Amino acid sequence: MNTVNQSQEKNKTTDWSVNSWQNKTVRQQATYPDKVALANAVDTLSSLPPLVTSWEVKKLKSHLAEVQHGKRFLIQGGDCAETFSDCTSPIISNRLKVLIQMSLVLIHGCRTPIVRVGRFAGQYAKPRSADTETRDGVTLPSFRGDIVNENEFTEQARHPEPKRMLEAYHHSAMTMNFVRALVDGGFADIRHPEYWDLAWVKHSPNANKFHELVEKISDSINFAEILAGREVNNLSNVEFFSSHEALHLHYEQALTRQVPRQDGHFNLSTHLPWIGLRTNQMDSAHVELLRGIENPVGVKIGKETESDHLVDLVRTLNPNDEDGKIILIHRFGAENIETHLPRLIDVAQKAKLKVVWVSDPMHGNTESTSNGYKTRRYENIRKEVEMSFKTHKANGSHLGGVHLELTGENVTECLGGARALQEADLSKAYTTQVDPRLNYEQALELAFAIKDFHRA
Ligand code: PEP
Ligand code: CO
Fold it and tell me: Where are the domains of the chain?
């Protein structure tokens, strides 16, 4: 029996449970010396209310089915690693502002509804290339995100603490609560662009372009309202969904639940959990945990992803062959996309896989500068998005969305963009815990570029 048939066989079985992942190969987890504290934290988490609801999860899945059929476009963005200390009003609202502005550029430019998904309210766990880090002869556990330990290079800070899972839950709940309150309260109302204007960019070239666009939209709404003789409703209602890498298996298990009057299990820590590139193997505990849930599931794929593996992975994660269920987030790097994307599109078409294709133009374009900064060039990011659109189109497929690392803060982490950030500028405001993010201006510039690629 070949591997594809084997995985189909497996999908028919009912051997899945919320802890069946524990019999698989577990990667990228912290080692907690205190097992009792770990069990207590998982118990407490399991009894706390969910962060999202099954109805919302199903709604997102139906939106993603529309993305799959080319009727919507997905924008997914936020920090590489959220931190507890960044759980503040300005940081959360600025990130929301950028996502709202980008989605407006895309709605207007692409004439298509947008699905907005944040990389927030739970993006606290990070995969690392090594379990330990050595500095000046001292070896300590690697920093694995605020849900596990602290970044500071001391023994105490790097010690994995189970109670940080509860802190991650609380910070996710506070973030979600604030996002929901802002959005429900009319923060994103198109008639009040001043609510989501970012003060510090008043004079940037893209901000002017953006303000012109807002004026155009406002004029059209006013015109429509005069014609109709009444207010156009529902302009203040935008939907935001949450997502994070479902990396910390104990945390994800504790929030994977059954709910009344619904079939199956839902991961209620987030609407859209995804599996990272480092944990997407067929024997992976992460694939096991996520194959049993009803949520849509993202999977990162890259140049190292073998064609057969892609087919096995999608069939395993989508046992009922649902639309809007699997989001393939490809991250090749601008240099490699032309070599590898056509191959994966072809295999997906031949196997009749139902998938949403999304471009992550960040993770294949990371480099280090001579002065020791991890960075990305705006030009490479832009290029990978452009190539993603073109390659899908040329191969009878279509790009359904983008997955970006960005912030609403005025950081200097990625090179280039409208203000042509140079290597020497990076030290001015380099605050990311892990990967370099697009700042507000670079993100908005990219939104205008995406609009053009989408139209082309
Ligand atoms: C990430 O999205 O931050 C990440 C670690 O990505 P990948 O799994 O694609 O390397
Ligand atoms: Co990252």
Answer: 23-455
Tokens of 93: 């609202």
Q: Is 162 helix (H, G, I), strand (E, B) or coil?
A: coil
What pairing do the DSSP bridges indicate for beta strands 138-141 and 132-135?
antiparallel
**pTM score > 0.90 for this model?**
yes
pLDDT of residue 199: 66
**129 CA to middle of ligand 1, Å?**
11
Give the tokens for residue 433. 């815990």
Ligand 1 atom nearest to CA at 279? 8
d(CA 215, ligand 1 centre) in Å: 37
> Residue 167's closest CA among 261, 281, 85?
85
Amino acid at the residue 111: R
Candidates 116, 204, 158; CA nearest to 31 is: 158
CATH topology for the 23-455 domain: TIM Barrel (3.20.20)
Question: Tell me: the pLDDT tens digits for 77-125?
Answer: 999 999 999 999 999 999 999 999 899 889 888 889 999 999 999 999 9
Contacts of 329 (CB under 8 A, 6+ apart): 274, 298, 299, 300, 301, 358, 359, 360, 403
Nearest-ligand number for the alpha carbon of 364: 1
| Contact assessment for residue 378 and residue 417, using Cβ atoms and an 8 Å cutoff | yes
Residue 85 CB partners (closer than 8 Å, separation 6+): none
User: What Cα–Cα distance (Å) separates residue 406 from each residue in 165, 311, 394?
Assistant: 24, 31, 29
Confidence of residue 12 (pLDDT cuts 50, 70, 90): very low
Encoded tokens for 257: 């639940």
For residue 25, the one-letter residue type is T
If we measure between CA atoms, which residue out of 277, 262, 267 comes closest to residue 310?
277
Residue 436, SS3?
coil
- Ligand 1: residues with CB < 6 A are 80, 127, 245, 276-278, 300, 331, 363, 435
Query: How many angstroms does the Cα of residue 381 sit away from the middle of ligand 1?
Result: 15
Q: Residue 298: is its pLDDT beyond 80? A: yes
